[in-house]
Design brief:
Blueprint lengths: L1 H6 L8 H6 L7 H7 L10 E2 L2 H20 L9 H11 L3 H8 L2 E2 L8 E2 L12 E3 L4 E4 L5 H20 L4 H12 L9 H26 L1 H35 L5 H7 L3
Parallel strand pairs: 1-5
Antiparallel strand pairs: 2-3, 4-5
Helix pairs in contact: 4-6, 6-7, 7-10, 8-9, 9-10, 10-11
Pfam family, one: Hormone_recep
Keywords: Receptor, Transcription, Transcription regulation
Protein name: NR LBD domain-containing protein
Amino acid sequence: MLAVRNACTFEPHTSATSCMYSRCLFKDLAWMASNSQKNLESFNPSPCSLEALRMWFVRDLSLMMEWGKCLPIMDTLLLNDKLALMKSFAPIFPLLQLAFYTTAPDESSNGVVIKLEPDIEPPNVDRLNYPDGTYIEKDNDNQNTQEMYTILIESCYKLLKRLQIKQEHIVLYKMLLLHNPDAEGLSSTGKKTIEQERNRLLNHLFIFLSNERGKSNSQMLFSNLLMMSATLNRVASFVRRVFDINHIFNRSNDLIDQLIIVGL
């Protein structure tokens, strides 16, 4: 998924429902090879406009849905239950992608390098960057995004760095957040299935952290990750506000409208 995101070439989905009906593109080797080619183009850093932010959210939402379809539990759920989980996770997933997979300037790689594990302090911790060189920062001209960006950088990105969260952790964490038994629209059967899977993931994440970091450190790390979920939900409320205002003037009916603002 990361290689596809970095390549910046794939066509985002236009319909959430059609996406859930169609085959999983991540299992299509030809599609993956075609859309994972390293982008050799040099990008000049530039502030991320609302239009660019919307583009990246749509891209990340497309990746979220393809990633979700890879999970075995999806084969056991009704379509409406799958969509309910996607809608619940939609405002958070792009934020987590940006906070963890932020890029940084590097002269040896055409200006962009991906840090898979955020254990090295970046050159500028007041800025988070997308693979195409656009960036968000706390101080910007768009007052609607200042608080949202500040919380994301200070309370999510820097926490991930401080805790030295690795890719294995973030994958399990994303799976945990996706399996939300309180997602609006879940059927009673789906809710029970998701509750069981979420409990299994909670135990798996804690055991994984304990084996890697030791019992005392794992408890601190585990509790911090759970508390960060509340922070991400807070940032997500700003996401809805920003795109809701944008929706009034730009009714595009893209994945943001379908999964975050208006609904299906």
